[in-house]
Every structure is written in structure tokens, then in C-alpha cells.
Design brief:
Methylamine Dehydrogenase, Chain H, globular, 463 residues, mainly beta
Length: 463
């Protein structure tokens, strides 16, 4: 490992015979002490660093599984050099991963009913990975860390477990409803929303507000059929719930803690079976990945979501920039873009230039090279967000050839980041032990790196 210390330039000093004599005398005294059996310990004085402080390293943080009963792995990939800088053992067969808002703490839910917490550091050791035990039969499916609390959706107990401290310890269970699968929130948000699908097939689900200050729940808010996922804007003003069974998105006004009713249809119609969403912050847009029927091409729906402000004109006389309402055009569908087969995730570059879509393909067919005139079964679609069109399709195949130009395996997760001279997309696959890296300037594979386990998830610790 290379040191981060900068060399200190030598300074030429004038010396006198008196100075030299003093140095000789000091050396002689030191040798005399050593001869008497004493140990000489030099005194080290710190030198104030010169120049700007070093910047935190940007990592792609990948989680992989080595099997259903064996420990998983966390792997750190250095963004600037595309090198693996650390691989550390974590809990048994990890199945969900999230980073804290600061980007330097990681959390995994593991198949043996445990929670791991660890620092995102190139010097991380397995002995430094902390472990917490969850409730029996909780069947944890996802987690959300707010900075102060960690909330774990327990499908097996129809609840959300609230944890705090380090390692996180369970403080209480919050009853949130049948088939609780996800918790939606944002850093410093005054409340989060637990998504519960309900017990009636084909029936509407609910979201249950969790007040961050008191860790108590409010009255449920009805949403659509089979809600599966949700996102909250960074300013905590709106939450969007994806209803895969009714092909729409419910909008929650997180300021009023109720359904958003001004200036839009609610829920907003999208494509068939919405499953994942991400924001394009600079464009005030929400991008929704629609899985479709799983065997034919799906789509991405782009929705305009501006709020009234000093720069966005609205006809609403009640507009208050400190408590904004929907601006004109909020909730309007900007585009429906066809992508690959069975899209399961979308990730948007923070500069708003491109979005990357993971197309898992027809699960009954292998991921192989496309034949003439046919689209690949498994792929990554790249969308230009200025033109709202697919500008590149990178096929995904079963491969271990580190020099090929394809994503390795059936993609299941994408982490994206901007950068200089190029941003990158990192892709994991559940049937591959490689992570594939795509350059965002030319949208081709840059390299593949080994994870030593099968990919579960990858996230960037910096945008």
C-alpha cells in the first residue's frame, strides 16, 4: 500500500564547526547509552501538511455471495484506477445492501437473519465487521438507514424493526401491515414510509408513515396494487411509490403527510409493472423502469416533477418557496422509451446526461450473443437524457473472458458515478463472479474485475 505522505523537500543549511561538534557529541552520547543497554527512542515531531487536504477515495462497493451457507464478501474498487483495493468477509449469503448517507458506512442483511455494519475503508478487516442478530422468523427483505436509525422491513413479521447505535441494536418493532417489503426515506427526512402490500391478492397496498423524531407510526395512506418500491426526493418533500400490480406511481406529499392532490393525476399512469425508479436531479424528472411481462421489451417512463419556486412559475396562488406545491407540469409524462427485455433497475448519472438500465432478460433463456436482427436477451440500455432515446445497448453474456466487450452474466444491479475524464457504470450479476465496468463517455466496456463471489449489489460511496 502506498503512503499518502508527501516528501518534504530538503533544505540546505549553513553549518559551523560549533554545530558539527555538537552533533558529534550527541552521537557519542547516544552510542554510550546504547552500550549500557538502554534503548534509544527518537522523538518525532509532526509536520503540518502543506497544500490542500486529501480527498476521500471514491469506491464502487460491491457485495457478493459465495453460497447459501458460506460467508459473503464486500469488495472495494477504486474509481480512478479500476483496481480492487480490498476484499473482506462479511455475513452468510448477503441479500440486501445499503450505504449510509455519508457514503462510508455499509449495511447488509444476511440470509442467516443477521445484519452486518462496517466501514468503507481499504484497510477494513473481517474482525472489524460488526454483526447484529434480528428477530426470529422476521424474513428481512430490505433496509433503510436514515443516519440516526436503521429500519428493516420484516416481511415475516408484518413490521419494521427500528435499530440504532453501533453495532445497530433493535429498539422496537413497528406494526406496519401484511407483507411489509420496503421503507422509503431520505437523509434528514422528518419521516419515512413503510410499504406494505397487504394480504389480499389484487388488493391495494398502503404506506405507513414513521415519524423520525419519535419513531412512532401514523395512519396508513392507501396506494396502488402490489407496491414494490419507492423513492423520496433529496429535499424530503415528495415520495413516489411504484405499484407494479396497477401500473402506476402514487405521489405522497411528505410535507402534509398525505396523498398529493394538486395539479396532477394521482396515481400517475406509467408502463407495465413498474419496478424501480431514480431521479434526474438537475432536470426535475423521475425515471421509472417498467419490467413489462418479463419476456418482451420493457420501457422507461420519464415524469416531470418540478415544484413551485422563485424560478419555476406556477398558477397556484398558495405557492410558498419554503413549503412548495406542485408546479405546472408536475406529474406529466415526458417520454416512454422502449428498452431491453425485463428491465429490473435504472440508475441515473448525477450530471443528468445519461441513465443506465439493467435488462435481466427472459429468465427461461440464457444470456448469449444476439443473432442477426434480434436484440440480446440480457443487456444494459443507455439512455441519452437530452434526447430521451436509447443511444447504446451493451449485450450481457455468460463469459469469463476479461478482454471481451460484454457485460458478464445476467445483470442485477448498477452503480453509476460521474468523473473525469469519464463517468462509469458498475454492473453486478447474480450468475457471475465478475463486475463489469462501462465508460459513460463512449458507452463501452472498460474492463472486468473479479469479485470472488456471485454479484448481489453494487453502490457508489460518492456520486
Amino acid at each position: 500500500m502506498h503512503s499518502d505522505r508527501k516528501p518534504v523537500a530538503a533544505v540546505r543549511l549553513r553549518t559551523s564547526s560549533r554545530t558539527i561538534a555538537a552533533a558529534v557529541a550527541a552521537t557519542a552520547a547516544t552510542l554510550a547509552l546504547a552500550a549500557c543497554g538502554s534503548t534509544y527512542r527518537p522523538v518525532v515531531s509532526s509536520i503540518n501538511p502543506v497544500g490542500p487536504a486529501g480527498q476521500p477515495t471514491k469506491y464502487a462497493v460491491a457485495i457478493s455471495s459465495t453460497g447459501p451457507t458460506t460467508k459473503g464478501l464486500v469488495t472495494l474498487v477504486d474509481f480512478s484506477g479500476d483496481t480492487v483495493v480490498n476484499t473482506t468477509l462479511i455475513g452468510v449469503n448477503p441479500k440486501y445492501f445499503q450505504l449510509a448517507a455519508n457514503g462510508f458506512e455499509g449495511y447488509t442483511i444476511n440470509s442467516d437473519g443477521t445484519l452486518n455494519s462496517f466501514s468503507i475503508s481499504s484497510s477494513l478487516l473481517a474482525s472489524e465487521v460488526l454483526q447484529s442478530t434480528l428477530y426470529p422468523n422476521s424474513n428481512p427483505v430490505s433496509l433503510y438507514n436514515s443516519g440516526t436509525n436503521t429500519y428493516i422491513a420484516e416481511a415475516g413479521r408484518n413490521s419494521v424493526a427500528q435499530l440504532s447505535g453501533l453495532p445497530p441494536a433493535i429498539q422496537q418493532e413497528l406494526p406496519t401491515g401484511a407483507n411489509t417489503i420496503y421503507t422509503v426515506g431520505a437523509s434528514q427526512s422528518p419521516r419515512a414510509y413503510a410499504i406494505a402490500q397487504g394480504s389480499t391478492p389484487g388488493g391495494n397496498g398502503v404506506v405507513v408513515p414513521i415519524e423520525a423524531a419519535s419513531n412512532t407510526i401514523d395512519s396508513p395512506i392507501p396506494v396502488g396494487v402490489k407496491p414494490v418500491y419507492g423513492v423520496m426526493t433529496a429535499d424530503s418533500r415528495r415520495a413516489f411509490i411504484l405499484n407494479s400490480g396497477s401500473n402506476n406511481v402514487t405521489v405522497i406529499n411528505a410535507q402534509t403527510n398525505a396523498l398529493d392532490t394538486y395539479n396532477l393525476p394521482n396515481p400517475i399512469p406509467v408502463g407495465v409493472s413498474p419496478i424501480w425508479a431514480d431521479f434526474s436531479p438537475g432536470k426535475n424528472e423521475l425515471l421509472v423502469a417498467n419490467a413489462g411481462n418479463g419476456v418482451t421489451p420493457g420501457s422507461v417512463t420519464i415524469i416531470s416533477i418540478p415544484l413551485c419556486s422563485v424560478t419555476v412559475i406556477t398558477s397556484n396562488p398558495l405557492c410558498n418557496v419554503t413549503n412548495p406545491v406542485d408546479a405546472v407540469g408536475f406529474g406529466q409524462v415526458v417520454a416512454n422509451i422502449p428498452v431491453g427485455i425485463n428491465p429490473i433497475m435504472i440508475a441515473v448519472m448525477q450530471d443528468g446526461t445519461e441513465a443506465f438500465v439493467a435488462n435481466a432478460g427472459n429468465p427461461s433463456l440464457p444470456c448469449v450473443l444476439p443473432t442477426a436482427g434480434n436484440a440480446p436477451n440480457c443487456s444494459i440500455s443507455v439512455i441519452n437524457l437530452e434526447t430521451n432515446t436509447v443511444i447504446a445497448t451493451v449485450p450481457a453474456i455468460a463469459s469469463t473472458n476479461q478482454a471481451d466487450a460484454y457485460v458478464h452474466g445476467r445483470p442485477n444491479y448498477i452503480g453509476v458515478t460521474t468523473g473525469t475524464p469519464t463517468g462509469k457504470a458498475y454492473i453486478t450479476a447474480g450468475d457471475s463472479t465478475d463486475i463489469s465496468i462501462i465508460r459513460s463517455d463512449i458507452n463501452i466496456i472498460q474492463t472486468h474485475l473479479p469479485l470472488q463471489g456471485f454479484g448481489v449489489s453494487v453502490r457508489m460511496n460518492q456520486p
